[in-house]
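Subject: Interface between my chains keeps coming out wrong

I've been trying for a while to get a sensible model of this assembly. When I model each chain on its own everything looks fine, but I need the whole thing in one frame so I can look at the contacts. Pasting all components below, labels as-is. Any help appreciated, I'm running out of ideas.
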Amino acid sequence: MSTQHHPPICLEKAHDDETYYLNMGPQHPSMHGVLRLLLKMRGELILDCDPIIGYAHRAHEKMAENRPWIQFFPNTSRIDYLSGMIYNLGYCEAVERMASIEVPERAQVIRVIVSELNRIQSHLLWFGTFLLDIGGITPFLYCFDDRERILAILDRVTGSRLTYSYGRFGGVSRDIDDVFIEQTRGFIKRMGEQAPMYRKLVHDNIIFLKRCDGVGVITKEIADAYGVTGPNLRAIGVEYDVRKAEPYSGYEKYDFEIPTRTTGDCLARFEVRVAEMEQSCRIIEQALDRLPDGPIKPAKLIKKLKPPAGEYYFAVESARGHFGMYFVSDGGDVPSRIKLRTPSFSALSAMPDVLEGTMVADTIAILGSIDIVLPEIDR
Amino acid sequence: MSSPDLSSLELGCEDAAYEGTGFHQVHRAEPGQIVAIAQKFLEAGYRLEMLTAEDRRTDLEVMRVVYSFNRIDHPDRHLVIIDLEPKIPGAHAPSIMGIYPAADWYEREVFDMYGIHFDDHPDLRRILLPEDADFHALLKDFGRIEDAPAEGEASA
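Reply #2:
Try treating it as a single job with all components included. I did that and got this:
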């Protein structure tokens, strides 16, 4: 199949009596937010698909242009509400690089710990809802039990369960204490013990395998053409992770692997994310071992920030892939332009090519497996 | 593993400080050259990482479209800047969708938010704003969100 674009509604194709259009969403329970898919179908076969987005557009990029750099910061955890911490800290890192602000070592290690906890939390929610989508209700309950423990840990240190606003330009807002370290170690231990249970519950389940194995293959050509990143790309066998390619927060000092699979189907994406949670646990353990004493933010907090004029780009690895921020500064204290390049946007834009020729029942499995967050696509 | 050979295109090219800006190189090009540039990047194995626009009508008297190309095997980020005439509607640029399908949605978003027209884009319609919107929200003269009258409030 070619990766060239084809118009969303292929009217030039034979328009026989059995061809019809089906609106899936925007209120469909498996559409993960407010996504509408306009499907052109013959029977249960999808001939073409047009994703219609924008229902959750909140004008984040417009808001960025009429407030100082620091006031845009709380918005960042609301773009992708499941990777709120990663987006918060990514925005801080980007501004720090732009304005040449030093970050103390302890703050960097704390950032890695909370980011990885956030990643596990996001993957656990995805794990539960994905299986819920394809008919398995039980795993959801176990996942949310484990996820709740992370939220409690992060809630204790940041004061929030979802929209953390934990970073500060040059550090983090509050220090972690021994209770945090103890709770986090306890959670890592628990995750290690839970893994065989999850495997038994899900991965050996014949219905699960039938729904996922060989379904919804994203080829390397499609991924390259549409800029697909994150676990969806690693499931094809491409070892690309921003944490390794362009390290930030000292990720180059940690020993971890980039899990990959080669088949690029729903099962491969599932396995990559499960393996990623194990790697995140490894990173957290190393970070807890090396946590140095010292300050967590600059002695003098930056109140008035005026970055030098110019264009800047900075990327972090969110739970969904390459999250890039393009900044234009005119030298003043208000951004001239902030463009947010979000990973789900690219993954969803590839869907017409992926869904073409699949069955409508598989749509749920495929869209569930690429792990999209609609507010992040609509911004 | 090599950068694309752009010498034949005679671009304004400068090395950027990667540590500070995130870009390895910045190129300034004419709008007519962008298809040829995109083709060179595609042949050299680059991905289109991002495409967006800037409303620079007040300071530089241009509408600007920027492209970011990058590799996924080792980072080598190139920013390509093209400047269009400062008129909305009126500003237009060639579409690179035929080369990078990823540009499809990015160009639709730029059209939606800035009103810049991409020639040869087969399906240039709004993507985030409502279909019947009569404005382009990221233009600087669109105003501030806070200035819009709240629902139910009489517009003065």
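Reply #3:
Confirming on my end. Chain B touches chain A through 45 residues (CB under 8 Å).
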